[in-house]
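#lab-general

N.A. 3:47 PM
ok so I finally got the sequence cleaned up, no stray characters, all 164 residues accounted for. can someone with queue access submit it? mine expired

B.Y. 3:52 PM
send it over

N.A. 3:53 PM
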Amino acid sequence: TDDIRIHLSDEDPSYLTKFVLDLKTLKAREETIFNQIVERPSTNLKFLSPTVVYLRSEGLTSREMGREIVKFDLLNEKILGKFGCLDECIFGEALFVPRLNSLQEDDGYLIDIVYFPSNDTSAFMIWDALTMSNQPIAAAYLPQRVPFGVHGLWLEEDYFKSGM
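B.Y. 4:20 PM
back already:
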């Protein structure tokens, strides 16, 4: 069947969590730093220790996949921005792609394959990660649904030129 459900409401929810290591006492503790149910964090991989993360959010109650993308400040533990779809949709896995030659951690794009349940189709969409506007920069609407669970990877042109 092509209707395999994942991330169902009866699964245990996941939260943005940090682990604090106390080097004096050699103890560790776990802290939830964002009370919404989130998955699929994405960061700017050009930064060794990112301070901004992009998350797919299900809100305060678990449901199938997420209906919002959240930009979260890891240092100050607060929301910097968020958006949902202009039409009813379910996000997949928003991947952060840095803008060419940018030096700012959150200057880039979020790309995702979004599902529209009302007509059982999907779209490849791109948003500005810096402004977090819910208006996509680009959208390629597909004639059919792309199943949940599709993962992406961004490879820059130099990767292909290097013969990797």
